[in-house]
Specification:
The complex is a heterodimer of chains A (about 400) and B (about 375).
Chain A: H1 19-23, H2 29-57, H3 66-79, H4 82-107, H5 115-132, H6 137-166, H7 170-190, H8 224-241, H9 243-253, H10 255-260, H11 265-292, H12 303-313, H13 318-342, H14 348-376
Helix pairs in contact in A: 2-3, 2-14, 3-4, 3-13, 4-8, 4-11, 4-12, 4-13, 5-6, 5-7, 5-11, 5-12, 6-7, 6-11, 8-9, 8-11, 8-13, 9-11, 12-13
Chain B: H1 2-7, H2 17-55, H3 57-79, H4 87-109, H5 111-139, H6 144-168, H7 193-201, H8 205-223, H9 225-235, H10 237-242, H11 247-274, H12 285-295, H13 300-322, H14 327-334, H15 338-353
Helix pairs in contact in B: 3-7, 3-8, 3-11, 3-12, 3-13, 4-5, 4-6, 4-11, 4-12, 5-6, 5-11, 8-9, 12-13, 12-15, 13-15
């Protein structure tokens, strides 16, 4: 039994992610919800301050109402029409799946920073299956989705196996694998899998039988959201209602205790990273089969990376992930409308997103220091009334 | 102090079985090729490769500069026990702020002072982000990967946001780039030594200073009191604390100072190499820096070596397309797409991480926040 206790072949020493530390050890879900809401509000405040700054810099003069105008346009764009809601749900779909991927790994004490690479691999495999294989409608779609899951799973298997059997840290390995996936698939999509008729290097369009059907007439809303919601329920069931989920969570909480309980941490590590990779791969497959229809060589998507933010904001819980993905989906799909209405660059949503995660990460500490300060106040030697 | 000294590995290179096997297999293959009559072709290839190395050292070092400076930033973090995956974001942010300041100032105060102020601002930007990373990692005890990820996300968003607000939509065109003093007349033409001297001393100041920064850091890390304390804090903070080293202060200082190196990497990109800024222009150099640090076994010399290897691979990728190596093998290599050379650093790092060839052992306390009250 040398697997998990094998000498570190690299990566960062004794570090492992503790899911309970991430979701905040104290407090029930109510307290977490409040903490999360505060983090979201603070993130939006950071965005508002930047909007005010851009207003001060612009030639039209300073407009203190600009943040409200901008956020209003954002909401109007993402939720103000059936069409907008369709786009919002389309943006939410891959976010749910990559968020589930990161959250699933977190529960086993693993940091899947490689959802980006797994997303690309799943997308590419689905694009190739959908374009090269001929099958009737639901079969080809299901096969392409399934193969996307397998492709991403294979890309997640590598860091899992290297961690379990060689002691290599999954964070460093997945960072490297992200770049390898982007470059390697760029190569494949511009050489052997290139569409000869296309004006820029990309794979051929998938067959119509592989395309996710549109759910609501007059919108672009495709059936991917159903796939994502089913995945969320399945992940919830596996994590919290199955023996495997118990083993995964025990391994995440305390690998040594897990080993004493007869759980093999090495096996759990490999399996968890493979499933996490599969979920990210499924996200890529859904994005290809629902939106782009082919894999461009220069494909650039931040969905994999956003999965980390979604998982953290969703407190590493499948249903929390769905909520967090919806929030980021709203930001993402409304950003274009905001830019058209107010000239504020869409990149501001990344700042808001990053700030929200910053506040989520710092929340336990802020809560603690806020509380201890409040407790000290009555005993403080300072003159009464000056405490603020 | 002797107990602490013993606990800290020196980072010496050991020849492992993996290396021996690799070397043996390579030599065996070469012998086989010679026996099969490919001897002259191999000699031609080696000649081409030596020619390549002798004519392009300044390009190789140029690619290595941001990688090696980024790796030095990582070194300062990891050696004192803080994981930093936010190097990419730090380099990107400082590349932007340095460029922004220099671009706006150069019509007012002239090219050279503007570039210098730009470098200073770049360094300060990265140190500020490092201070945020230090606070989140050390005081808040947040997950350090998350802290680094937050820095990366915010850096991508903030640079693109302000790039559009302050540069793309304004009449600012470009920033001045820093030039080196150049070599004395004729020195660059001296065979072998000339191109090497030109690579180090004939280019811009950040490129020139890299070699000295690396030597300085190697000396400091393994031969100074600061280095001993830093390594102690990274390996066994409890023991370091027991002998009176302030773990928290050491970590804060090193993480923030390390940011200066990432700042120089960023300043190199915009103020010495190209003189303009594009969104996400770092294109993963911060992650390659992390790879170089691991590949170089967490030592400055090793990191520079890895950076030169990675820079060399990239230069080679460009060179074979312009001037194909001789012979059939040469043509075959020239037909490799650029992406293969791009993947090279990452694949090599995974090979090292997997322990197939050599080993990279990180500091024992890397990534674990120090809690004085915990056991």
């Amino acid at each position: 039994m040398t697997e998990a206790s094998a000498p570190a072949g690299g990566g960062m020493g004794g570090m492992s992610v503790n899911a309970t530390a991430l979701v905040g050890s104290g407090g029930g879900w109510r307290q977490q919800l409040v903490g999360t809401a505060i983090a979201v509000v603070l993130g939006l405040v950071v965005g508002a301050l930047l909007i005010l700054l851009s207003s001060a810099l612009s030639e039209e003069g300073f407009d203190p109402r600009l943040p409200f105008t901008a956020y209003g346009a954002l909401l109007e764009g993402s939720l103000g029409s059936i069409r907008g809601i369709g786009n919002t749900l389309n943006a939410t779909t891959p976010l749910i799946l990559t968020g589930l991927s990161v959250a699933f790994a977190f529960r086993a004490g693993l940091f899947n920073i490689g959802a980006g690479g797994q997303f690309y691999v799943g997308a590419f495999v689905a694009a190739v299956v959908g374009a090269w294989i001929g099958l009737p409608f639901p079969l080809l779609l299901l096969l392409a989705l399934f193969m996307g899951f397998i492709g991403g799973g294979a890309w997640g298997f590598i860091p899992g196996a290297l961690k379990a059997w060689r002691g290599a840290h999954e964070v460093v390995v997945t960072i490297m694998l992200n770049s390898i996936a982007a470059l390697g698939l760029n190569l494949l999509a511009s050489t052997w899998f290139k569409d000869p008729a296309a004006s820029f290097p990309r794979t051929p369009d998938v067959h119509p039988e592989a395309v996710l059907p549109i759910l609501v007439e007059g919108t672009k809303m495709h059936a991917g959201i159903i796939v994502a919601l089913i995945a969320a329920v399945v992940v919830w069931f596996v994590l919290f209602k199955s023996t495997l989920g118990f083993e995964i969570r025990t391994t995440g909480a305390n690998p040594n205790a897990a080993r004493y309980a007869g759980i093999r941490p090495a096996f759990i590590t490999v399996l968890t990273m493979s499933i996490a990779g599969g979920l990210a791969g499924l996200a890529g497959a859904v994005e290809i089969l629902g939106i782009t229809k082919n894999y461009p060589a220069e494909y650039n998507s931040t969905y994999g990376f956003d999965g980390i933010a979604v998982a953290l904001l969703g407190r590493v819980h499948p249903f929390g992930v769905v909520g967090a993905a919806l929030l980021f989906g709203i930001l993402r799909s409304g950003a274009g409308a905001m830019q058209r209405a107010t000239n504020i660059p869409i990149d501001i949503i990344f700042i808001v997103q990053g700030s929200i995660i910053l506040f989520v990460a710092a929340e336990p500490f802020l809560r603690k220091s806020f509380r201890s300060r409040r407790r000290k106040t009555p005993h403080a030697a300072a003159p009464a009334g000056s405490a603020a | 102090m002797s107990a602490v000294t013993a606990a800290v590995p020196k980072g010496r290179v050991r020849i492992s079985r993996g290396w021996a096997i690799t070397l043996g297999v390579t030599l065996g293959l070469l012998a086989l090729l010679v026996v099969l009559g490919y001897g002259p072709a191999i000699v031609d290839l080696v000649e081409w490769f030596i020619e390549f190395l002798l004519t392009r050292p300044y390009i190789i070092l140029g690619f290595a500069v941001p990688i090696a400076y980024g790796a030095l930033c990582g070194l300062m973090n990891e050696r004192s026990g803080v994981v930093n995956v936010g190097i990419e974001g730090m380099i990107l942010s400082s590349a932007f702020t340095g460029f922004l300041v220099a671009a706006y100032l150069h019509p007012v105060i002239g090219d050279v002072p503007a570039a210098l102020v730009g470098v200073l601002v770049a360094v300060l930007t990265s140190m500020l982000l490092s201070a945020l990373h230090a606070w989140l990692s050390i005081t808040v005890m947040a997950d350090q990967i998350i802290s680094g990820t937050v820095i990366n996300i915010i850096a991508i968003g903030a640079t693109a946001y302000f790039n559009q607000l302050l540069i793309s939509t304004s009449d600012v065109t470009g920033a001045p780039t820093m030039q080196g003093l150049g070599l004395p007349e004729g020195l660059a033409d001296v065979p072998i030594i000339g191109p090497l001297l030109n690579a180090v001393f004939g280019q811009g100041p950040i490129q020139t200073s890299l070699i000295f920064a690396v030597i300085f850091m190697q000396f400091m890390l393994f031969r100074s009191r600061w280095g001993l304390r830093t390594r102690a804090v990274g390996e066994h903070p409890k023991a370091a604390d027991t002998v009176g080293i302030n773990v928290i202060r050491t970590r804060y200082r090193n993480v923030i100072l390390g940011g200066a190196f990432a700042g120089l990497a960023g300043a190199y990109l915009t103020l010495e190499s190209v003189g303009s800024f594009q969104d996400q222009m770092t294109a993963g150099v911060g992650f390659i820096a992390l790879a170089a640090l691991i590949f170089g076994r967490y030592t400055p010399f090793g990191a520079l070596g890895a950076a030169l290897l990675f820079g060399g691979a990239r230069t080679l990728g460009q060179a074979v397309q312009i001037d194909a190596p001789p012979g059939q093998i040469g043509e075959w290599i020239a037909s490799w797409p650029a992406q293969i050379f791009g993947m090279f650093p990452y694949i090599l790092t995974i090979v090292v991480l997997a322990g197939v060839v050599g080993k990279a052992i990180p500091p024992a306390a890397d990534g674990i926040p120090y809690d004085k009250e915990a056991n």
